[in-house]
Design a protein that fits this description.
Helices cover about 50% and strands about 15% of the residues. It is an alpha/beta fold. Helix 3 runs parallel beside helix 4. The chain is globular and about 60 Å long.
Length: about 280
């Protein structure tokens, strides 16, 4: 039965991850959920470890920490059927403003952390000949023409890129991989430590400052997306045999994606003659 499936969810103490874990437990699924601190996770979920719930304190940038968490999950539940890589954080700042340290840390969490989890989980999925992987990107991982979030968006582009390749690699093994592109959903993402400001601000970047202000004072609390609806769709999608590699969630996500596709198609056709002129003459 579907609700006997075992889910492994990272970044489960807030946002979409928290909503997902609560709905899964309510529906009778077995869930291993990770966060940086056990206390914050148990408080957020409102439950300590039980027959169907395994809270795990994990540093996703540590391969050993991830390996231990996956091993504990297998020991308790015997398998992992669905992996959701949700852990990550946002980073404001123009590209020039952000230091090498700030940019690399964002990639460490958002990209390499997810890769750590995938590497440790896939051996069990391969052994079972089945499994589903959902990697949470963002509409910013498809369209990044927003000032002040270039590095964050680039981490989400990376998530989309490796997921697309991963989907091709694991398909023959009975495993699927999907990249999720949420738009703006009404969680605490914009009003919590999930959004980090640049340490060194360059005032010349007025567009980046305006973007930060808009996110903090206008968008936060007014996001159009309902997180409960989003995770309900994710749970439903996970029951399907054929799952898309790319899944956009939210009307705003759809419209922004459609806008980029139209612009790229126009540019592609406008410069077609130049584009195809660089091949050897046949």
């Amino acid at each position: 039965m579907e609700n006997k499936k075992v889910w492994f969810v990272t970044g489960a103490s807030k946002g979409l991850g928290l909503s997902l874990v609560k709905q899964l437990l309510s529906a009778g699924y077995s869930v291993a959920a990770t966060s940086r601190t056990m206390d914050s996770l148990s408080k957020a979920v409102g439950s300590a470890e039980s027959e169907s719930f395994l809270p795990l304190e994990v540093s996703i940038t540590s391969e050993q920490s991830v390996k231990d968490a996956v091993s504990k999950t297998i020991e308790k539940f015997g398998q992992i059927d669905v992996l959701v890589n949700n852990a990550g954080y946002g980073l404001f700042g123009a590209v020039e403003e952000l230091s090498d340290e700030e940019a690399r840390h964002n990639f460490d969490i958002n990209v390499f952390g997810s890769l750590n989890v995938i590497r440790q989980t896939l051996p069990y999925m391969r052994a079972n000949g089945s499994g589903k992987i959902f990697n949470i990107s963002s509409i910013g991982g498809f369209r990044a023409d927003f000032p002040g979030v270039g590095i964050y968006c680039s981490t989400k582009f990376a998530v989309a890129g490796f997921t697309e390749a991963l989907a091709s690699e694991v398909k023959e093994l009975g495993i699927s991989a999907t990249v999720i592109y949420p738009g703006y959903f009404r969680t605490d993402f914009l009003s919590s430590e999930s959004m980090v400001a640049p340490k060194n601000v360059i005032e010349d970047y007025a567009g980046a400052r305006a973007s930060v202000q808009a996110h903090e004072k206008e968008i936060d609390g007014n996001q159009p997306g309902d997180p409960e609806k989003a995770v309900a769709i994710l749970i439903k999608i996970a029951t399907k045999e054929n799952i898309p590699v790319h899944l956009f969630l939210g009307k705003d996500s759809y419209e922004m994606a459609q806008g980029k596709i139209e612009t790229m198609t126009k540019n592609l056709e406008e410069y077609r003659a130049i584009t195809v002129s660089t091949d050897f003459d046949s």
